[in-house]
Amino acid sequence: SVHFNDPKYPQQWHLNNRRSPGRDINVTGVWERNVTGRGVTVVVVDDGVEHTIQDIAPNYSPEGSYDLNSNDPDPMPHPDLENGNHHGTRCAGEIAAVPNNSFCAVGVAFGSRIAGIRVLDGPLTDSMEAVAFNKHYQINDIYSCSWGPDDDGKTVDGPHQLGKAALQHGVIAGRQGFGSIFVVASGNGGQHNDNCNYDGYANSIYTVTIGAVDEEGRMPFYAEECASMLAVTFSGGDKMLRSIVTTDWDLQKGTGCTEGHTGTSAAAPLAAGMIALMLQVRPCLTWRDVQHIIVFTATRVSPSQADARPGPAHFRVLIPRVWTSVPYLASYVSPVLKENKAIPLSARPLEVLWNVSRMDLDMSGLKTLEHVAVTVSITHPRRGSLEVKLFCPSGMMSLIGAPRSLDSDPNGFNDWTFSTVRCWGERAKGTYRLVIRDVGDKTSQAGVLRQWQLILYGSVWSPVDIRDRQRLLESAMSGKYLHDGFTLPCPPGLNIPDENGYTITPNTLKTLVLIGCFTIFWTIYYLLEVYLSQRNVAFRPICRSGPCHWPQRSQKAKEEGTELESVPLCSSQDPDGGDWSLSQSRGALDVPQLLPPDLLQGKEAQMC
Amino acid sequence: LVGAGGPGVQGPRGLSWAVRLDGPEGKGAEESLERRADALAQATGLMNAGRIGELQGHYLLVQPAGHRQARQVEAVRQQVEAVLARHEAVRWHSEQRLLKRTKR
Fold first, then answer.
1. Which residues contact A227 (CB under 8 A, 6 or more apart)?
2. How many helices (H) and strands (E) are present in chain A, helices listed first?
């Protein structure tokens, strides 16, 4: 029953796929129930957002926006040589394009507010990333990041110290303590045989890592499989398949609308939009609740692709209605396990084990797993020849470090953290097995596993608690709670102040300095004028010996009100012996000029 | 000016360091840390560009604007590193390098 007059809406197959029913995010039923992201702000951290365009302007949030490249509050994209800074605007359109304006398209969460942080259009440092991840974090609920380190099949990079600290700070203090939601696109380098476990943003436990499937539910040529990816959603695929239709910028070659948005960049904002719908239903969902809901409700879309699992958003975003918060995050960190063991060049891999006992977990209360991370230091003459697998106690295998043919880096891994979400919900106790294989040239030098460390994240939930929660979700997925007004109460958030007040931009600062300089100059000039005019008059010899002749005041001076200050410093004496002084009023000083002649008689004794 | 430089300071292409300072917590901590950051900036010959976003105790120190020869840059780098390494208030420091990030 949902109809919009936006000309490209019928082509937005990801919202309503008429050609292949079911191959969409199934969101129209949610909209029908007035769940549109109202009250939620999503910020696109990218190359800017053209917020003046019709599809964005009504939902634009200037309060949540900032330009870190130019250091001002306006994230408007700047045209560049390659007509390339349309990326953020396209992502913003996917999330919150305004419907029924006859302009272009419709956003997944068209009732939400959309902000922009411009940070990708210039040199970027760790500190800038850190600022971006926490910018206006009491206003912005969801940070959508469709970017990351190069997906060239040879890069190993991710957030550095400050970026990591900002992500952690965001989930602790952002969104009134419920935690900022960081959605990151990952796995865009399939054609380079890349793997998103070499992307630190994807490995981070604080991010919702999103990949892509095409309209047919298959892995596109650019997609990567990886164990730290939480879910996938739709995007473009091969040439014969449709890309994502969304709002575009109208600068340079842009027309305000595009049918060619693709890659994981196009998938992540759809997930951000769906999370915005969840947060409207239940604003007090924590960052971990959001991850749990995705893990518990995502469905496998392709038997050949273990990590591709978008689910029916229709029910998924209504799951929050019955969702009570997950218990606190519990963790276990093993000692740093120094191995110094060679990785055989034969087919036989190196295996190392670590047993986590019940006593080890008693301290934190950790019972079931969420993210499992392994930090390794390995020396190897050709890093891309390594294959790293982690087996959880249940036997679940995660390929946490896939071999990469293009990665010939001779430095190996230096405290690199791989992670997996494949053991989510399993018992934490037991033996973990790290298996490292050298799949490279057998004539090269053997690598050495220097050390490793196991880090488990999870909660005090027992496997029984998890099953109970799954049963609750299944009953909610049946549609049971769709039609009644059932909602759980939401606790209030914490009162955490946003940034330290307003930061003055360079332009404002320059203006203030100019005004200040002008004021100082004018004050000096004014004082000087007063001083000089008074001195000239006060020392006129004529005033000492005879009646004081006041200098002629110009009409202009009177109008400007400068007359008072330029009167001579006269000491007047009235016939009754009283003193006149400049402390008297201007009216009193005007008396000699204004009084009729008869009243002036006897006042001529005024002396300078 | 936090985190991004401003007039009179080198942009992200110039030398800059992120530092984490030890300091008091609670009321007045922010002012105390700010003073320490100013003092540290003075000791290193850099400018305090302010706190890094919302990260308490983290400050960005940047090289004042001006062209320098490569040799001078290296000398400045070594000098700053030496001061930061032995300064008692500095818990951690890191020179800010350009990161390569791509749209996906």
1. A197, A307, A390, A398, A399, A400, A418, A419, A420, A421, A422
2. 15, 21
Q: What is the DSSP string of B11-57?
A: -TTS-EEEEEE----STTHHHHHHHHHHHHHHHHT-EEEEE-TT-TT
CA distance B72 to chain A (A): 22
Residue A160: active-site member: no
Torsion sign across C-alpha atoms A428, A284, A133, A259: positive
Give the orientation angle of helix A287-297 with respect to helix A264-281, to 10 degrees: 110
Of the listed ranges A88-92, A317-321, A471-475, B62-66, the one predicted with least confidence: A317-321
Q: How far apart are CA A274 and CA A320, in angstroms?
A: 12
What values do phi and psi take at A488, rounded to 5?
-90, 150
- CA–CA distance, A474 with A467 (Å, rounded to integer): 10
pLDDT in tens, A83-97: 899 999 999 999 999
List the structure tokens of B39. 């003092």
Cβ proximity of A181 and A141 under 8 Å: yes
pLDDT one-digit tens code per residue, A489-537: 999 999 988 765 555 555 677 788 888 888 998 999 999 999 888 877 6
- The angle, 0 to 180 degrees and rounded to 10, between the axes of the packed helices B29-44 and B70-86 is 140
Instruction: Tell me whether residues B101 and A147 touch, CB distance under 8 A.
Output: yes
Q: Which two tokens stand for residue A595?
A: 């009084």
H/E run at residue B2: none
Q: How far is B19 from chain A (nearest CA, A)?
A: 10
Closest by CA to A414, choosing from A463, A370, A373, A380, is A380
Q: Which amino acid is at B41?
A: A
Sequential DSSP letters for A151-185: -SSS--B---HHHHHHHHHHHHHTGGGT--EEEEE
Q: State the catalytic residue, choosing from A87, A136, A192, A261.
A: A87
C-alpha closest to that of A120 among A175, A75, A187: A75
Is the Cβ pair A157, B7 closer than 8 Å?
no
A87 part of the active site:
yes
**Helix (H/G/I), strand (E/B), else coil: A431:** strand
> Alpha carbon of A325 to those of A89, A282, A289, A503: distances in Å?
33, 11, 6, 36
- Of A68, A134, A148, nearest to B101 by CB-CB distance is A148
The 10 Å Cβ neighbour count of residue A285 is 26
Round to whole Å and give the CA distance between A382 and A9.
Answer: 49
Contact B6 A506 (CB under 8 A): yes
Written as one letter, the residue type at A580 is W
Closest CA to A164 of A128, A208, A204: A204
Distance CA A280, CA A320 (A): 9
Residue environment code for A162-196, b if the CB has 16+ CB neighbours within 10 A, otherwise e:
bbbbbbbbbbebbbbbbbbbbbbbbbbbbebbbbb
Identify the closest residue of chain B to A268 by CA–CA distance.
B104
pLDDT tens for A535-557 read 776 555 544 445 555 545 555 54
Give the residue among A301, A428, A287, A291 at the shortest CA–CA distance from A367.
A428
User: What sign has the CA pseudo-torsion A45, A46, A52, A57?
Assistant: negative
CA distances (Å), origin B100, targets A70, A122, A384, A403, A495: 18, 10, 20, 22, 36
Distances (CA, A) of A276 to A32, A41, A283, A354: 16, 8, 9, 40
Find which of B20, B47, B54, B96 to mutate to test the A interface (most A CBs within 10 Å of its CB): B54
Token pair 């939601």: residue: A181
- A68 contacts in B (CB within 8 Å)? 3-4
CB–CB of A177/A283 below 8 Å? no
Query: DSSP 3-state assignment of B87?
Result: coil
